[in-house]
Structures are given as C-alpha cells and as structure tokens.
Specification:
The chain contains five helices and five strands. By secondary structure, the chain is α/β, with parallel strands linked by helices. The chain has a five-stranded mixed beta sheet, with helices on both faces. It is elongated.
C-alpha cells in the first residue's frame, strides 16, 4: 500500500499545481485586457506627435536637430525591455537571441563600447553577461507610467547629444496578438525619417523660437515611443504567461489521468494479491 499512498500524494500535488497554473492563466488574461486598453488610449497622442516630428524632419527652413543627424562616434546604446519574472515560455530567450544577433552586426571596434539601460531583471542579467556597461536600470512594472521612462531616455539622449554614442536602439517584444510576440529592435537615435508618418514639408512659426519648441518635442516623441514599447512588453509578457500556464494546466490534466490510472492499477494489484494470500492460507489450512 506504500506504493499506492505515494501515488496518491503525487496526485494531490499535481492537483494543487493545476489550481495555481489555472489561476495564473486567468490573472494573465485580465492583465492583458487592461494593458491593451492603455495601449489603445495612447495611440492618438503617439500618432499626433509622430506626425509633428515628421514635419520637422522634412522642414527645409534651415533648422536642424542633432537627433536627425548621424555623428561619427562608434559607441552604441541599447534600451532593453525584458521581464522581472519567468513562467512566460521562451519570451525572454527569443528576445535576447535576437538582440545578440543585432549586437554582432554592429561595428564595435576595440576603441568603442556598448552602453545600456534595462527594464527588468532578466534584461539586466543578460546585458551584464555580455559585458555591457549598465548606466541605468528599472524594474519591469506590470502597470508602467510615463514617469518610469523619463530618467532612462533622457540619460541616453544626453549621451547622444554630447556625441558619446553614435546610435541608440530600443529592444522589446512587440505585441502582435495573444499568440504571437515579435522580438523587435528599432533605432531611436538618430531618428530615421522614413519611419515617421509624414509626406509633406511644413514650416512652423514658433514662439519664442523654433529651437525652444523643437528640443522638448523630440524628447516627448522619444518618451512616447519608449512608453508604448513598455506597454507592449507588458502585454507580451502576460500573453506568453497565459499560453504557458494554459499549456501547464493541460499537461497537469494529462498527468492526473495517467496517475489515476496507475493508482487504480496498483490498487487492483494490491487487492488481487490480498485475495490470493487469503485463498492460499485457506488451502493451507485445509
């Protein structure tokens, strides 16, 4: 009976695990819904500011912002958005594999280096493993706010404006749907004009001056792109966790069925053995 008792304990353990994975799946579904609502609410602001920056990029009035021009510095900056926790399948692994491939394609010489700001412990651990200089780190919050991105983006933007880095990239998981999360690397600085939603040249008349408006607007543009990426990363994490927990729940169901069959078989063997012993004892007495 010790064997049957051991199987019964395993069935109890698997049942408890199934309850946890099922609850985590339901929680992830609700969090995806809330995050997608925030993403949709941000879209009008993001589209508007991208159009304004696009008009500025095509402006031929003689004004120019350093964010639109390359510099000769070979140092590269990365903003990497990962997760704080696991249990989300291969989400982080796929992202870091894509990032590693991108890093290998950069022209990093002996006199140049990579600096990085990270969101999430997983991203921090990966970049440290690559020997990258970490200049900023923030936790990957489930409910990020715009204030969470300002310090990181301004620090790296200042490095670019001071010509201490030549390029700045943003690395995150792009939310396609609940079943598909796409590892993405986009170039934040210098701003690629072709990615801006603008086809016409607009000449703005600004007060007090064009420069006083242009610099804060570029900063707001970079902050909105980073904030949108943070929201997408949160949605991707919850979607990946939902899929992983659903798969774990289904696996637990299959294991429970197998263990119950094994328990019944063990119990039948035990009963058969007891009957055989009783019959054998009765025959011996006769």
């Amino acid at each position: 009976m010790s064997k049957a008792r051991e199987i019964k304990n395993k069935i109890s353990s698997i049942s408890n695990t199934k309850k946890i994975t099922n609850a985590m799946e339901l929680v992830a579904i609700s969090k995806i819904k809330r995050t997608r609502e925030k993403m949709e609410a941000l879209q009008p602001y993001k589209r508007s500011i991208i159009k304004m920056v696009g008009h500025m990029a095509l402006d031929d009035s003689g004004h120019g912002h350093p964010a639109f021009h390359y510099n000769e510095n070979k140092n590269v900056g990365y903003i990497v958005i990962g997760t704080d926790r696991g249990l989300c399948g291969g989400l982080n692994v796929n992202l870091f594999r894509h990032l590693y491939s991108h890093i290998q394609k950069q022209e990093i010489s002996d006199n140049s280096s990579i600096v990085s700001a990270t969101f999430g412990r997983k991203a921090l651990a990966f970049m440290k493993k690559q020997g990258v200089t970490i200049i900023g780190h923030s936790p990957a919050k489930e409910n990020p706010k715009m204030e969470d991105v300002i310090a990181e983006i301004r620090q790296l933007t200042k490095l670019y404006m001071d010509k201490q880095i030549g390029k700045l990239f943003l690395v995150f998981n792009s939310f396609v749907n609940t079943l598909l999360q796409q590892p993405t690397v986009i170039q934040l600085l210098p701003i690629v004009k072709e990615t801006l939603d603008s086809k016409y040249k607009w000449s703005y008349k600004c007060e007090p001056s064009f420069e006083d408006i242009q610099f804060p607007l570029i900063q707001r543009y970079l902050e909105s792109v980073l904030y949108q990426s943070l929201l997408e990363a949160v949605a991707c994490e919850q979607a990946a966790r939902m899929v992983a927990m659903k798969s774990a729940t289904e696996n637990a169901d299959q294991m429970l069925n197998d263990m119950k069959q094994l328990f019944n078989r063990q119990r039948q063997d035990s009963i058969t053995q007891e009957i055989s012993e009783i019959i054998g004892g009765a025959n011996a007495i006769n």
